[in-house]
Design a protein that fits this description.
This is MarR family transcriptional regulator. This protein is mostly helical. The chain has seven helices and two strands, in the order ααααββααα. It has two domains: 84 residues, no CATH class; 63 residues, Arc Repressor Mutant, subunit A.
C-alpha cells in the first residue's frame, strides 16, 4: 500500500494563498482589459451568484452570500440602476422579487471570461511542460470550488 500523502497546515495555507492571489489578479485583469473597472466587489459577487442561480430572491441571495438582506438589497438597487440586474415581482409573494442578470451583464461577463481565457493562454504558453500538468488539475479545482461552497458534498 502506498504511503499516504500528509498535507500540512502550511501546504493548505500556500494553496489558499495561491488560489486567492490568482483569482484576484485575473479578476482585475479581466475587468481592466474588458473596460469594466469600478464595479465594487459586492456587486461582482451578486452578479456571480445570479449567473449560477438566475431568478433567486434577495433573501435567497443574502443567505447564499452570508450577508444581511438590507445590504444585499442596496447592492441590487445599485445593479438595477447600472442596468445590470432586473427585478420581477414574485407571483407567489408580491413583496419579493426574482433577480436576473440583464443582457448587458451577460455581455460584460462574457468579456471578462474572454479576457481571463486570453490571459491564461498567454501565461500557459510561457510555462512549458508545466502547462499541461496545470490544465490537467482543472477538474480538481472545479471539485474544490463545489466543496468550498458546500463541504457536505465531499
Amino acid at each position: 500500500m502506498p504511503d499516504e500523502v500528509r498535507i500540512t497546515d502550511a501546504d493548505v495555507e500556500r494553496l489558499a494563498d495561491s488560489v486567492r492571489t490568482l483569482v484576484w489578479k485575473l479578476q482585475r485583469v479581466g475587468e481592466r482589459e474588458a473596460g469594466l473597472m469600478g464595479i465594487p466587489q459586492s456587486e461582482i459577487e451578486v452578479l456571480r451568484v445570479l449567473s449560477d442561480h438566475p431568478g433567486i430572491t434577495v433573501s435567497e441571495l443574502a443567505r447564499m452570500l452570508g450577508l444581511q438582506s438590507s445590504n444585499v438589497s442596496a447592492t441590487v438597487r445599485s445593479l438595477v440602476g447600472r442596468g445590470l440586474v432586473t427585478r420581477t415581482t414574485n407571483p407567489r409573494d408580491g413583496r419579493s422579487y426574482h433577480l436576473h442578470r440583464t443582457p448587458l451583464a451577460e455581455h460584460n461577463g462574457d468579456l471578462i471570461r474572454r479576457m481571463w481565457t486570453s490571459r491564461m493562454q498567454q501565461v500557459l504558453a510561457g510555462m512549458g511542460d508545466d502547462a499541461a500538468e496545470l490544465v490537467a488539475v482543472a477538474p480538481l479545482l472545479e471539485r474544490l470550488a463545489v466543496l468550498a461552497d458546500d463541504p457536505a458534498q465531499a
